[in-house]
Design brief:
By secondary structure, the protein is an alpha/beta fold. Helix content is about 35%, strand content about 25%. The chain has 12 helices and 14 strands. The strands form 3 sheets. It has a 6-stranded mixed sheet with strand order 9-14-13-10-11-12, with helices on both faces. The protein has a 5-stranded mixed sheet with strand order 3-2-1-4-8, with helices on both faces. β10 and β11 form a beta hairpin. α6 packs across α7. The longest helix is centred in the last third of the chain and has 25 residues.
């Protein structure tokens, strides 16, 4: 593998700083020297990158493509949930002839057409979707990420968004009551206040307050574990979480015209996959009134490949520099 066929890839967010080296001379891509650092170990993105290059012990590739959790503007990024900064100029100064920063969910959008079919699993009924039509990628984790791959007549453009911060639209008395409780606490209640790890905790606390119980706070992990064990209060919280997840996914399918599919990323969905499959996720996804016919044929797919952001970042760099 020549130096020019190698790409240093990163997937860097609020919790982890993950790096690897991709061999881009063939598909599917081969990944080597994978390392997962805890973000708290470093004071800056540059420090994490230097540590990785020291640990990898390999010749530095000529190109770097880094997926970051936050908006990228003119080749520069400030991390949403960490006080780090990165730029393509800094990467070039560090010795990379080609450099790309890309939003992590935009990178996931690129990965969808590159990953093998076994990298996905349907949530709900299997649907084909329409080839060449836009796709949506979204997911709950530390926050709630949203992107779109806009497609038109053979052309594709990734659109990174801050869709996780749109207002939460409740349906039914319970969700309305939860919204009212959270409005007192936060003012603006975004989707992320419901659909994220902290969001799970918010929902549980709100439901307990509505029920008049003074329960001790639980972490998202505790809520999920207890729900799967049959705890009534935790099941109620996780049920609402899954229902809202489906409703929001359907809203973005409409907003993006995502007839090619909605792809679900983020760490939470994979952890609760069985629960999600048996929940109202898909029913709420399809329940769009006069436009239900539009979303019913759209597949909802869970991304199983943990290295999807690596693959997507490398693919984006290849496309942007005009290579096949």
């Amino acid at each position: 593998m020549s130096r020019d066929s190698k790409i240093l890839v990163g997937d860097v967010g609020g919790t982890h700083a993950r790096f690897a080296i991709v061999d881009a001379s063939q598909k599917p891509f081969r990944l080597d020297y994978q390392v997962d650092f805890g973000g708290d170990e470093f004071e800056s993105f540059a420090a994490a990158l230097r540590k990785y290059l020291d640990c990898a012990g390999a010749e530095q590739p000529s190109a770097a493509a880094i997926a970051v959790a936050g908006p990228v503007t003119a080749g520069s990024a400030h991390f949403t949930n960490r006080g780090w900064h990165a730029s393509e100029d800094d990467l070039r100064k560090a010795g990379f002839r080609q450099a790309l920063l890309i939003n992590d969910f935009a990178a996931l959008a690129f990965s969808v057409s590159t990953l093998e079919p076994e990298a996905f699993r349907s949530v709900g009924p299997e649907r084909e979707g329409l080839a060449g039509e836009p796709i949506t990628i979204l997911g709950a984790g530390t926050g709630f990420g949203v992107s779109c791959l806009a497609r038109y007549r053979g052309r594709s453009v990734p659109i990174a968004t801050e869709g996780g911060h749109i207002g939460f639209a409740p349906r039914g008395e319970t969700e309305i009551a939860v919204l009212r409780v959270l409005q007192k606490r936060f003012g603006h209640v975004s989707v992320e206040r419901i659909l994220s790890g902290p969001g799970q905790e918010n929902v549980y606390a709100a439901l307990e307050e509505i029920a008049g119980r003074k329960s001790p706070p639980l972490t998202a992990e505790e809520i999920t574990k207890r729900a799967q064990e049959g705890d009534t209060a935790c099941r109620a919280a996780l049920d609402l979480f899954c229902s809202a997840y489906g409703a929001v996914a359907g809203d973005f399918a409409l907003a993006h015209g995502a007839r090619g599919g909605v792809f679900i990323a983020g760490g939470i969905a994979a952890k609760i996959e069985r629960y999600l499959q048996n929940s109202d996720f898909r029913a709420r996804f399809e329940d769009k009134g006069r436009l239900s016919y539009f979303v019913q044929p759209i597949p909802t797919m869970l991304i199983l490949e943990k290295n999807a952001a690596f693959v997507g970042a490398a693919d984006a760099l290849l496309e942007f520099r005009g290579e096949p």
